[in-house]
Amino acid sequence: MAFMLIAVTLFLILAGLFIIVIRFSGVRESAEALDEKNTLLLVSKLADSPEFACGNIFGEPMSNCIDTDKVMALKGRLGDYDGFWGVDGIEIHKIYPVGTNEECTLDNYPECGKITLLDAEEGTGKENFVSLCRKESGDFIYNKCELGRIIVTYGAD
Amino acid sequence: MEMVIKNKRAQEEIVGFAIIVIIVSLIIVFFLVFSLSNRDQAIEGYKEASFLQSTLQYTSSCENRADFLSVQELVASCYNKEQCGEEEACVALNQTLKGILEASWPSGSELPVKGYKMEAVSGEELVFSLSSGNVTGSYRGAQQIIPESGASIKVYFTAYY
């Protein structure tokens, strides 16, 4: 009887361990995926904030869209936004059309490739794809959207 | 007589143990089926979804009545077999998307992204398909639907890691 009780107890312990191992084997992956989702959401949330977002100015409402004309205007008044976004770095890079990687200024805009709003020396950088839209004038005024990425850096000491 | 009783008890204990083993095994199988079917798929492909959305908003070089077509409009134009200036809309679409994909998703066997595939379908009809690199078992994807005169065009993008 005693041996049978020991056998049953051991079996239940082993079965419990098996369940625990299976149950928690995906926890790390889930945590990493959730962390990635949260950071990407943070990046998108930043891109969709009124200071960056295209809103309805390009016809229909567009999400994941940054109005670069607005950002360039914002760049000249960064002193008013000290600590406003709660992150250490914000950079916007043009991906396509491929061109120069030069920092945008009022002199070379829009023939440039990068807008640095907050320059972070260190920290964790997370990025997401965005549309970079602006009003372009040629023979007529039209909306021009290019492909870019927004990089948000946080966690610097 | 005592021996017979002992044997009977031993048999009962073995039967009881077998029943416990069966019950616990059933619980484990049920648990495994339940936990494996509840894997969270929604958090997959968030970056790919942003890429697809941004790509569809991209302004192409196809001029149309004092405006330029977005990639989304160009996909619909390609589906309708229209022209983009001198060339077919589908040719312009392929060129634009090829440039965007190559600039955005550098892929290769030694890079984090092994390959990608982007395609659009309407019902059974393939509107366009572009791919590069290797197809692997680890992938993330996204889709967008473009409504077009009664039909709907589904655009898919998948990145293989």
What's a quick, concise take on this entry?
Chain A is built from 3 helices and 5 strands.
Please describe what this structure looks like.
The complex is a heterodimer of chains A (157) and B (161). In chain A, 33% of the residues lie in helices and 28% in strands. Chain A is elongated. Chain A contains three helices and five strands. Chain A has helices spanning 2-24, 27-47, 68-75; strands spanning 65-67, 89-96, 114-118, 124-137, 141-154. Chain A has 157 residues and is of the alpha+beta class. Chain A starts with a helix and ends with a strand. In chain A, a hairpin with a 3-residue loop joins strand 4 (124-137) and strand 5 (141-154). In chain B, helix 3 crosses helix 4. Chain B contains four helices and eight strands. Chain B has one domain. Chain B has helices spanning 2-37, 46-57, 71-79, 89-104, and strands at 59-63, 68-70, 83-84, 87-88, 115-122, 125-133, 139-148, 151-160. Chain B has 161 residues and is of the alpha+beta class. A four-stranded antiparallel sheet of chain B has the order 6-5-8-7, with helices on one face. In chain B, strands 1-2 form a two-stranded antiparallel ribbon. The termini of chain B are far apart. The interface between A and B is large, with 41 and 33 residues.
